[in-house]
Amino acid sequence: MSTAREEAPLTPRQRTILDELGRRGFISTTDLAETFAVSDMTVRRDTRVLSKLGLVRVVHGGVSAIQGHGQNADFAARVREDADGKLRVARACVSMIGERDAIILDAGTTTYQIAQELPSTFTGTIITHSAPAIQRCLQLTAARTICLGGELLLDSQAFNGPMTVTAAAGLRAKTAFIGVSGIHDEAYYIERDVERATKIALMNSAEQVVVVATHQKMLRYALARLAAFDAVDVLVTDAPPPREIETALRAADVKLVVAA
C-alpha cells in the first residue's frame, strides 16, 4: 500500500481559474470573487491550493500565471500592471470587432489583452507582430493569423524593423489597435523611437485607428512622439481623462470610449 498522500482533484472553480489565467495572465482576487459570487477568503483558499501545486503564482492583489506562454519576465510583469483597467479596455475593443473583421494588433500588454479576449468563434483575420499575441492566436483556430516578421525585440516581445514595416505596408485591415506609453499635449507618445516606424506603418494599413491606453497613461510623457491626436479615430481608456485631454480630443474629432 502506498504511503504517499494523493492530491485531491481540482474543483470546477479551480479549473476555471486556471483556464482564465491561461488567457489573461493575471486576475485580481476581487475579480475572481465577483465572477464566482464567493468571498475573497474562498478565492484565496483556491489560489493557495493551486500555488502549492505549482500551477499559479499568488501575488499582491491576486494571482498570476506561471511565466510562460511566450512571455519573458519583464513582459509578464507589465501584463500585471493595472490588469483590471487593461481588461476593461480590451473588452470594450472586442465589442467593436465584427466576427469576420480583419484587425491589426500592435505590440504591448493592452493589445495583448485584446487577443486574450477574442472569442474562440472569431473567424476574422489577425495581423500582428507581437510574439505573445501570436502565441494566443494558436488557440484561435477559427481565425486567420498573419505574422509580421522582422527583428525580435526581447523587451517588447515584438518583431520590428524594415522587414516589419514593409510587410505591414502590403496589408489592409478594418481596424488597427495601437498601444502608447503616454498621452499629453495633444499627442501620443511611446518609449522607444525605434518602434515608431512600425507603429506608423500599422496605422497607415487600417481604415480605422484605435489607441488603447489605461488612465495611467494620461498626462504622461514618454521618449518619442508617435502622432498628433488627429491621426487617430478612437481612444479607448478605462476612466474619464483629464479635462484638457478630453477637450483636445473633441477638437481633433477623436471619439472617446470610456470602458465600464
From TrEMBL:
Organism: Pseudarthrobacter phenanthrenivorans (Arthrobacter phenanthrenivorans)
Keywords for the protein's UniProt record, in alphabetical order: Repressor, Transcription, Transcription regulation
Function: Repressor of the lactose catabolism operon. Galactose-6-phosphate is the inducer.
UniProt name for this protein: Lactose phosphotransferase system repressor
SUPFAM superfamilies: NagB/RpiA/CoA transferase-like, Winged helix' DNA-binding domain
Residue ranges of domain HTH deoR-type in the record: 10-65
Gene Ontology molecular functions: DNA-binding transcription factor activity
PROSITE patterns per record: HTH_DEOR_2 (PS51000)
Membrane spanning residue stretches: none
Keyword Nucleotide-binding applies: no
